[in-house]
Amino acid sequence: MKKLFYPALFHAAEEGGYWVTFPDIPECITEGDDMEEAYSMAVEALGLALTERMKEKDIIPEVSKVEDITGDGTVVLVQFDLDEYNRKHNSKAVKKTLSIPEWLNEEAMAASINFSQVLQEALMVKLRIAKS
Description:
The protein is of the alpha+beta class. It has helices at 35-55, 82-89, 102-110, 115-127, and strands at 3-12, 18-21, 29-32, 74-81.
């Protein structure tokens, strides 16, 4: 899963701003003082709801067709990028133990190479993930 687009309903709030619901994900509700903030909050709320479902091994709902959405509010497609969300929210470092040949270790140490950085860069290349 890379990028998903879920339809959201943006409702004008009486006190100003917008509140946002996702017909496919009933627990996902948020708000913002203006359209820009409401959209930004919708992206974050969608990310939280989907990643929580993934952690719990719950079903990720199929995306409804925009023409099938009913209810008050304006339908807006909200984009969710799992890779971007994980880079933003799951960047805590984890310790890894690995083995390399002694001669390679000595050469790398002599060249003051940062092993963690090299491993991260190599993994991103291998996984074809763009650095942000």
